[in-house]
Specification:
- With 429 residues, the protein is of the alpha+beta class.
- It has two domains: 189 residues, Class II aldolase/adducin N-terminal domain (L-fuculose-1-phosphate Aldolase, 3-Layer(aba) Sandwich), CATH 3.40.225; 210 residues, 3-Layer(aba) Sandwich (L-fuculose-1-phosphate Aldolase), CATH 3.40.225.
- Helices cover 38% and strands 15% of the residues.
- The chain contains 14 helices and 16 strands.
- The strands form two sheets. An eight-stranded mixed β-sheet has the order 4-3-2-1-5-8-7-6, sandwiched between helices. It has an eight-stranded mixed β-sheet with strand order 12-11-10-9-13-16-15-14, with helices on both faces.
- The protein is globular.
- The relative contact order is 0.09.
Length: 429
């Protein structure tokens, strides 16, 4: 099963997560810090002024409960506010502080991102606190941040500085951090092409309520070699999606048809970064693998496979530039370059709520297109081979990115209808 982070040494947890944050461009070589408090009350923390791009477990500092410092470096200069948070919130066992670009953008205009921009973020991030500016590394800053955490917040925007987040463990803190930065990016990118639209609390509650039904469990499960091979393919694509910013810890579903209408699908409530073969859920004859919770979108995948025999793999995810179109109701015109249109054709969108089981839009499950945007929720990509489907996702995200970035230069000039017809005749006839 996925990593049991409680059985991983704090120094290994920290180096793994700080590397992930750095590689995803959410902190700099010198910026950001992470800590974990263990059951003894000792705090393990990243060192001061050590390259975050090459941090090793031996670099992590331990500050004992009595204040003794163990390690070959100085603890992070921001250690005071880590310590202050743990003192006021015994439920918090890990803290992440960093300067991710989108959240810093909010901090310097002194705003808090509205997490109702996507369906799951409200519950993952919770309400967001706000800490007024104080000198970095000072006890005063620690006091102000601790006061915000004392109010019950687990995520706090730091004025003209960045953000700090806590969690029940480091995986929980990172999921909150990554989700909040994703919300901020989606709002920023969406603002370049239109006006972001936000979900109401009642819409989010309705989404949560309609996801409670579970498939019955199968009595026994077999894992022949072709099934195991598909599990491996899914895990590789999920990992690749996370590394490339096409998926985040808290959201992303990948499935592959196995035999007939039976398929394999990613689980719910498992960090996408750490997913492994044993986490994947087999769906056979309308039943789920014993003891596992498949993605809450399982029924959508099930219906697509039933109604579209040519579809053998599906990816549902939230990638920031595609979601910029999904949250602004802007039309994503992929007639940007020939390759984009050849792979994707035109990308329709459906309203938020059309993906609920009670009122599914036929565009999602019956009239299945290569790519579809579900407003304020996700993008759905279908294809034959899983690698091909992933390629479609990349092409769609790159096309969306080009349009968002180009918006500051002027209006996009797409290839015209005659040029599209030429492409249709040559590549799709």
């Amino acid at each position: 099963m996925s990593k049991n982070i409680k059985l991983e040494h704090p120094r290994d947890q920290i180096t793994r997560i700080i590397s992930r944050i750095y590689q995803r461009g959410m902190t700099t070589t010198s910026g950001g810090n992470i800590s974990v408090i263990d059951d003894n009350g000792d705090i393990w923390v990243t060192p001061s002024a050590i390259d975050k791009g090459s941090l090793r477990a031996s670099d992590i500092i331990c500050v004992k409960k009595d204040g003794t410092v163990i390690g070959k470096h100085k603890p992070s200069s921001e250690f005071p506010f880590h310590k202050a948070i743990y003192e006021v919130r015994p439920d918090i066992k890990s803290v992440i502080h960093a300067h991710p670009p989108a959240l810093v953008s909010f901090s310097i205009v002194r705003q808090i991102p509205n997490t109702n921009i996507i369906s799951q973020a409200k519950h993952i991030c919770g309400p967001i606190g706000y800490a007024t500016y104080e000198l970095p590394g000072s006890n005063k800053l620690g006091e102000i941040i601790a006061e915000e955490f004392k109010k019950g917040f687990k995520a706090v925007i730091m004025e003209n500085h960045g953000t700090v987040l806590g969690g029940t463990d480091l995986t929980d803190a990172f999921e909150r951090f990554e989700t909040l930065e994703f919300c901020a990016r989606t709002i920023l990118y969406g603002s370049q092409i239109g006006t972001p639209n936000y979900l109401t609390d009642s819409q989010i509650d309705a989404f949560e309520a309609q996801n409670n039904e579970m498939l019955p469990e199968m009595e026994t499960t077999s894992h022949p070699s072709d099934e195991v091979e598909k599990r491996l393919s899914i895990c590789k694509i999920v990992q690749r999606s996370c590394q490339q910013g096409l998926m985040i810890s808290s959201y992303g579903t990948v499935s592959m048809r196995w035999k007939g209408n039976d398929f394999l699908i990613t689980p719910t409530d498992v960090c996408r970064w750490d997913m492994n073969l044993e986490d994947i859920v087999q769906i056979k004859d309308g039943k789920r693998e014993v003891g596992k919770k498949p993605s809450r979108a399982t029924w959508i995948h099930q219906e697509i496979y039933k109604r579209n025999p040519n579809v053998n793999s599906i990816i549902m995810t939230q990638s920031p530039y595609l979601m910029a179109f999904g949250v602004t109701k802007s039309y994503l015109n992929v007639r940007t370059i020939p390759e984009s249109w050849i792979f994707l054709q035109d990308i329709p969108s459906v309203k938020y709520g059309d993906h609920f089981k009670t009122n599914t839009n036929s565009k999602i499950t019956e009239n299945c297109t290569t790519a579809l945007i579900i407003e304020n929720d996700s993008v759905l990509i279908t294809g034959d081979k899983l690698l091909q489907t992933f390629d479609y996702l990349e092409v769609a995200e790159f096309s969306a990115k080009s349009i968002v970035l180009g918006a500051s230069l002027g209006d996009m000039v797409p290839i015209n209808d005659n040029q599209v017809e030429e492409l249709r005749q040559k590549f799709l006839a």
